[in-house]
Amino acid sequence: MSEAVVHRTRSGGEVRKGLALVVIALSQLMVVLDATIVNVALKDIRDSLHFTSDSDLSWVVTGYTLTFGGFLLLGGKLADRLGRRTIFIAGAVLFAAASLAGGFAQSQELLIVARLVQGLGGALMSPSALSLLTVIFEEGPERNKALGIFSAITAGGAALGLILGGLLTEYLSWRFVLFVNVPVAALAIVGALRFVPESKDEDARGFDVLGAVLVTGGLISLVYGLVKLNDTSVSAGTKTFTFVASAVLLAAFVVVQRRVAQPLLPFRLFRSRALLGADLSALLVGAGVFAMFFFITLWEQVINGYSPITAGLSFLPMTVLIGVGAGISSNLLAKTGPRPLLAGGTGLAAVGMLLLGLRLEPGSSYVSVILPSLVLVALGMGLAFVSLTSAAVAGVDKADAGIASALLNAGQQVGGALGLAILTAVSSNRTAALFAGQPKGPQDVPRFYDALVSGWSSGFVVAACFLVAASVIALTLVKVSKEDAVAALKEAVPA
Question: Per CATH, which fold does 12-204 belong to?
Answer without folding.
Answer: Growth Hormone; Chain: A; (1.20.1250)
